[in-house]
Each structure stands twice: as C-alpha cells, then as structure tokens.
C-alpha cells in the first residue's frame, strides 16, 4: 500500500474557491482502479492548511492517478490558489 500526504497552504481569500474545485477531483479519483481512500482535511487551527490523505494499492495506481485527466486539469487550478508550493510525502507501510 502507498500513502500520500499532500499538504497545501492556500491563500486565505481563496479557501472557498479551492473547496469549489475539489469535489469533482475527489469524486473522479475515488472511482479510479487502485484508489483505496482519497480525502481532504483542513487544519482546525490554521484554516489555510489543507491536506490530501490518500491510500493507493500500488505505485502504479498512484502514477495512473497523477496522469489522469481530472488530476491534470485540477492541479494548475489548485496551484494558482496556493500561498506556497505543495509539500508531498509518498510513503510505504512499515508496520
């Protein structure tokens, strides 16, 4: 299993715009073969901090996702709303 944690720092006045973009990305991603879980969380202390937490069956499934049309279309839109570059962690299960 592959776990992805993608941390976003969104411009304060763009948080609601981000929330309008995300539902389609999440819905389409959850339909993908190999997607076990795909969620977006917002930090309770810092509303500008949002994190995608994803579980994938394999690295191949993750790569297919990153090449998917909905991902490729959403990422430039999300990038425009960010205050700084996304922090991305791709992890494998240890225990």
UniProtKB/TrEMBL annotation:
Keyword Phosphoprotein among UniProt keywords: no
UniProt cross-references to SUPFAM superfamilies, sorted A to Z: Dimeric alpha+beta barrel
Pfam family for this entry, one: ABM
InterPro entries: ABM_dom (IPR007138), AI-2_Isomerase_LsrG (IPR050744), Dimeric_a/b-barrel (IPR011008)
Residue ranges of every copy of the ABM domain listed in the record: 2-90
GO molecular function: monooxygenase activity
Keywords per UniProt: Monooxygenase, Oxidoreductase
Organism domain of life: Bacteria
Record protein name field: Quinol monooxygenase YgiN
Source species taxonomy: Bacteria, Bacillati, Bacillota, Clostridia, Eubacteriales
